[in-house]
Amino acid sequence: MSTDTVLEARDLHKDFGGVNAVDGASFELDAGEFVGLIGPNGAGKTTMFNLLAGSLDPTSGTVMYREDDVTAWSANKRARAGLVRTFQIPRPFRRLTVRENTMVAGPDHPGEGFVHGLFITPRSRNREIELQEKAHEILDFVGLDDKHDTLAGHLSGGQRKLLEIGRALMLDPEVLLLDEPMAGVNPTLGEQIIDRLKELHERGMTLCVVEHDMDFVLAHCPRAIVMVQGQVLVDGPPSEVLEDPRVLEAYLGGGQAPTERGGDASA
Amino acid sequence: MTWHEAVEDQDRLLVSGVLLAFALLALLTWVGVSTGTLALAGLAIVTLVVSQLEAREDPGRVRWVWLAVLALDAGFLYAWIAETGLAGAVIFALAVGIFVGGWRLEDHYEANNWIRLGALVLGTLVLLGGNNWAGEIPWQSLAFTLITVFTFAVFAVGLNLEYGFGGLINFGHVAFMALGAYTIVLLAELGGFWATQLGVFVAFFAAMAVAAVAGLLLALPAIRLREDYLAIVTIAAAEILRRVLLNEGELTHGAHGVTLNSSRRPAVLEAVETIPLLGGQLVSGLESFAAFLDFTGSPYLMVLFFIALAITAVLLVLVERLVESPWGRVVEAIREDEDAVRALGVNPTVYKLQVFALGSAVAAAAGALWAWQLTFVVPGHFEPLRTFWAWMMIVIGGVANNKGAIAGAFLFWTIWSLTRGLGFLTTYGLDGSQIAAISPMVLGLMFVAFMLVKPEGLFGDKEELELVD
Ligand SMILES: Nc1ncnc2c1ncn2[C@@H]1O[C@H](COP(=O)(O)OP(=O)(O)O)[C@@H](O)[C@H]1O
Ligand SMILES: [Mg+2]
User: Fold this and answer.
1) For residues B199 and B193, what is the distance between their CA atoms, to the nearest angstrom?
2) What does DSSP say about strands A68-69 and A231-236: parallel, antiparallel, or unpaired?
3) Do residues B383 and B368 touch, judged by C-beta distance below 8 A?
4) Spatial contact of A173 and A202, defined as CB atoms under 8 Å apart
5) Which helix (H) or strand (E) holds B338?
6) For helices B35-57 and B64-82, what crossing angle results, to 10°?
7) Which region holds residue B33: left if phi is over 0, alpha if psi is between -120 and 50, else beta?
8) CB A151 within 8 A of CB A96
9) Dist CA A224 CA A38 (whole Å)
């Protein structure tokens, strides 16, 4: 683990009753990196994110975040510590407004305690106002400016992806794991999302993006990690990675060309 | 302007209903045309004409005259069917007018359903109070019914907190009402401090605390279950509790239950008297009010009515505040998607436990009212059916709406009371048990009608209902 490493997967395994979705995968992310995580459908990318973010417990292996072994940490503890993920299929709180969706993610809110909620203490009121301003900024940033009071269930697929990112940003993530943020989104909105991600990268956030679109990875990520059958096959600059015969074979063997854009259903 | 343009959709529905009723009436009395039938037919014509005229002026506004006529129609129809006198008709008409008027006013002023809730409460009071003034229902029974309404309103608010806001399916809610009721009577049985005025106050909070702790203990292992499994666990737990109460001889006296005996009952009155500043005046005021109304019993039920009203109001305001706070926002988010909440750094389990404990405590408040009202408690009071009554109330009222839960309780009991003991049905050849079956039948039909026509309930949000996955 180099001094710059913020997140490390150490020999992670996840066995779903016989299916080894992640089968001994290891890699490190350095602070401020913008990494593309690619691989054919079913390669274990989403499962990898689940293990890193704590949504699933690994069968074996370790997740290191900053200085800590966080393998035993709950997903919520990791998120609060700045290790935040988004879902491949967005999971909006459908009957809450876009603003409320975002506010739920706002950390350190005394009003979310039951007594403060009941008595609306000044501390709670102030924090509510702070977070409202922050939510406002973030929603404007991701391009949902005119949707603050819309119920999230009414958003289009693309807007849900934006909300997914917006909610994550409320936590001021140090490492942001994005699971196919552009899949199924129309090209204009896709460009908008790419712009936002680049801006976050410039601000120093560590980003790891699962993406099917190789052009995107070639154009924007200095580094690509290729997963195949639960393992890390190649790790390096995208131009080199894509030349690798093993990668081509894995994609063709998986029946899918690396440039194909699309989403798989397993969230 | 044609007839169809003039009349809004729902109005057309009402008009068709009234017309149909009159057609039926005419058919029934065809054999012997009485002056009453002629009068009704006249009213029908007036209704139509008025609706035409008022709609022509400005289709958008509240049509008061038509509303009044419609209400009168309903009143006379009711009086004719239930064979009450003129007073009965006027009272029914007034109540219907208040209900429908409240509905329309809310549409106009959009006061977050407060107008509707007010209309519902006021209409119920007029209906039940009026019937009683007209000699249809005695005061005792009126006060008794209204206390029951408040008890179930509180009970439903607790369930609504759990299901409507928290998404927790609790089919054993009645267990916590039982715990509240038993805590009240058992503490009173201890005597000493518990028979004092302060003791009565403390016992109320003790009942809530006992249920909250019990709820927490049940929820600790159960809350992680998928929602339908939670439903099974809770209904089983409630039945187990009832069986224990039934078979335990020493403490709860099994099927005989526990009586809150008369020497302790006045403690509730005295407890009210100890309320700083106003308590004394309150009791003596109520006593003279009761005397004025020729309320023959002790003022106990009268005082309890106001206690029930106060508890309902306070709990409504508190729960409303809670669900609208940031805390409530998290709870609703958990209802929508627990894993997403977790990924956003919040531990849902803590909130679900709190919601379950709180809902249970609110149910215990209802249990306390129940114990005070009946002054005895037996296990038979707490059959699973009660939980499902509360489910009906919150679904009728509109899930995830506190005022809706209360409105649901009012509607449920108003219909229950009005369809109970309809003695005149014996003339149609029904026997006692058949007449007793009318109430649940009408309620069941009403429930089905709601599901078909207004699945979002009285105060529910149709837009939100469509977003449930
Ligand atoms: N909860 C689960 N239970 C069983 N199998 C799963 C589960 N989640 C994923 N899998 C399987 O694990 C493999 C990897 O899936 P996933 O991580 O979603 O791949 P990717 O995101 O790379 O397309 C697939 O074969 C998938 O069917
Ligand atoms: Mg995936």
Assistant:
1) 5
2) unpaired
3) no
4) no
5) helix B338-343
6) 160
7) beta
8) yes
9) 7
Listed residue (B248, B316, B261) closest to B112, CA to CA: B316
Q: Say how far apart CA A89 and CA A97 lie, in whole Å.
A: 19
Best CA proximity match to B356, nearest among B371, B334, B341, B336: B334
Q: What is the 3-state secondary structure (H, E, C) of A35-84?
A: EEEECCCCCCHHHHHHHHHCCCCCCEEEEEECCEECCCCCHHHHHHCCEE
Q: Which residues of A191-214 are buried (b: 16+ CB within 10 A; e: fewer)?
A: ebbbebbeebbeeebbbbbbbbbb
The C-alpha of A80 sits at a distance from chain B's nearest C-alpha, in angstroms, of: 5
Structure tokens at B316: 């409504």
Structure tokens given for A177? 């794991």
Q: Comparing C-alpha atoms, which of A240, A228, A168, A244 is closest to residue A37?
A: A228
Whether this prediction's pTM lies above 0.80 is answered by: yes
Tens of pLDDT, residue by residue over B301-323, are 777 888 899 999 999 999 999 99
**Which of A76, A93, A167 lies nearest to residue B336, judging by beta carbons?**
A93
Return the amino acid letter for B343: A
Q: CA dist B392 to B173, B335, B387, B438, Å?
A: 13, 20, 9, 17
A151–B464 C-beta distance less than 8 A: yes
A56 Cβ contact partners less than 8 Å away, ≥ 6 residues apart = A14, A47, A50
Written as one letter, the residue type at B295 is F
Distance from chain centroid for Cα B50: 34
Numbered residues of chain B with Cβ closer than 8 Å to any chain A Cβ: 318, 321-322, 325-330, 332-333, 335-337, 339-347, 354, 358, 400, 463-464, 466-469
The best mutation among A38, A46, A51 to test binding of ligand 1, ranked by most ligand atoms within 8 Å of the C-beta, falls on A46
Nearest 5°: phi and psi at B294?
60, 40
In the numeric block, which tokens belong to residue B381? 């009071």
Q: Which residue matches tokens 């006296």?
A: B253
What values do phi and psi take at A181, rounded to 5? Answer: -65, -20
Q: What is the ipTM of this complex?
A: 0.91
Average pLDDT, chain B: 80
Which helix (H) or strand (E) is A227 found in, with range?
strand A223-228
pLDDT per residue over A46-68, tens digit each?
A: 999 999 999 999 999 999 999 89
Residues B245 and B254: their CA atoms lie apart, in Å, by 6
B438 Cβ contact partners less than 8 Å away, ≥ 6 residues apart: B419, B420, B422, B425
Strand A175-179 with A83-85, pairing: parallel
Q: Where are the alpha helices (DSSP H) in chain A?
A: 45-53, 75-80, 98-104, 114-119, 122-142, 157-169, 187-202, 214-220, 238-243, 245-253
B373: tokens are: 């009202």
Q: Which residue has the tokens 């090209």?
A: A187
B291 pLDDT higher than 80: no
CA distance B401 to chain A (A): 13
In the chain, the amino acid numbered A31 is: A
The CA distances from residue B145 to B66, B93, B394, B410, B418, in Å, are 32, 21, 19, 10, 11
Identity (one letter) of the amino acid at B318?
A: L
pLDDT at A265: 41
B348 Cα to chain A: minimum distance (Å): 9
Please judge whether A76 and B342 are an interchain contact, meaning their C-beta atoms are less than 8 angstroms apart. yes
Q: 3-class SS at B136?
A: coil
User: What SS3 class is residue A34?
Assistant: strand
Ligand 1 pocket check for A15: Cβ under 6 Å: no
